[in-house]
Amino acid sequence: MINENTRKSILDMLKIENDFLSGEKISSNLMISRVAVWKNISNLVISGYPITAAKRGYILEKDFDLILPYEFSGSIPYHYFKCTDSTMNYAESRLNENMLVAADSQKNGKGRYDRKWFSEEGGLYFTLFIKNLSLPVQKINFLPLLAAYTMVQSIKNIYNITTEIKWPNDIYFKEKKLAGILINSSCCGSIITEIAAGIGININNKVNFSEGVSLSAIKNTKLKRQLLLNDFCSSFMKDIYSIDINKITNFYDKNSFLKNKHVETIDDQNVKISGIAGNMDDHGGLLIKQKNNIIAPVYSCKNMKIIKKDN
Ligand code: BTN
After folding, report:
1. d(CA 220, ligand 1 centre) in Å
2. Residues 99-108: what's their mean pLDDT?
C-alpha cells in the first residue's frame, strides 16, 4: 500500500526517533505489511529524504533541507514543484483558491519590471496567492512592505540573522541583496481583493553576482528552507487580512537599508529625484530630503541607486 497518508505517518515516526526504527514496528503500528513499509520508504528516499536502511531498521538524518509537501505545516493547499516555469505563473493561472506554490528551481523566474529572477536549486522560490481580501486600496503600497517586514522577522526568528528592508521590495544583508519581492494585486473598485505575493530568497544556492548574498554564506552552513517557509507563511497569513500600517512603518524606520543614504531615482512620472532617504510616510512612500531641503515622498520607482560619498 503506497499512499500519501501512509508515507506521511512513516515520516512522522522516523522524525521523532533518534535511533533505528524497525520495519516490524512501523508495520505493526500502521497495520501494513513489511513490503509496504519498504516500498513507502523507498519512495521517500526517491523524493529526497535521507533515510538509511540497515538490519536494525530505518533511520532518518534530521538535518535535511526539503520543501516537499510533507514539510508544509500551513492549512492552505500547497503545490510543490521540483522545477517549474514560475510560481507566479502557476498561481495566477488558477485563481480559484488560496494557495502556496513553491519550487526548488524556476526556469523563468520573474522579477519586478520584467526582469529575470535567477532561480537555481538551493534557493527558496514561492508565491502565496490569497483571495477574498477586503483591503482599502490606500493600503496597496504596504503589500510589498508587509512581505518584507514578515520576511525580515522570519529570517531573524529562524536563523538569527539581522537583515534590512530596502524600500520597498528588497531585503538586504549589509550591502548585498538577499531576497526580492514581487506583488501582483487585483482590485474591485476601491478594494484590494486578491494578491499574489512572490518571494525569491537566496538560501543554499550559489549567488553568481557580486551584489548578492545567500543566508548559507552568511551562516557558513547549509540551512533548512522549510523552517523559513513555514514561519513566513503563518505570520503573513495572520497579518494580511487587516495590515497594521503603524506596525510596519515603525518597523521599517528601525530596519531600513536606505535610511540616511544618498539615493537617486526616477519616479513614475519620469522625474529624477535625488537626496537623503529618510523614513516612510503614512501611505508607504519613501521620504527623500532633496538639496533644496524639500522633503518629497516617492511611491514607486524602477531603480533606486545609492550614490556613494565620493561620487
Ligand atoms: C525582484 O526583486 O525583482 C522580485 C523577485 C521575485 C522573485 C520571486 S521567486 C518566486 C516568485 N516567482 C517568480 O517568478 N518570481 C517570484
Report:
1. 25
2. 98
Q: Write down the pLDDT at residue 4.
A: 86
For the CA of 110, the nearest atom of ligand 1: 14
Helix axes 4-16, 34-47, angle to 10 degrees: 80
For cell 531641503, the residue is 293
Please, which pLDDT band fits residue 309 given cuts at 50, 70 and 90? low
Report the pLDDT value the prediction gives residue 311, as an integer from 0 to 100: 46
**CA-199 nearest atom, ligand 1:** 8
Ligand 1 atom closest to residue 103's alpha carbon, by position in its atom list: 10
Q: Model-level pTM?
A: 0.94
Q: Ligand 1 site: residues with CB under 6 angstroms?
A: 86-88, 106, 109-112, 115, 117, 119, 125-127, 169-170, 180-182, 198-200
Q: Which residue is closest in CA terms to ligand 1's atom 11?
A: 198
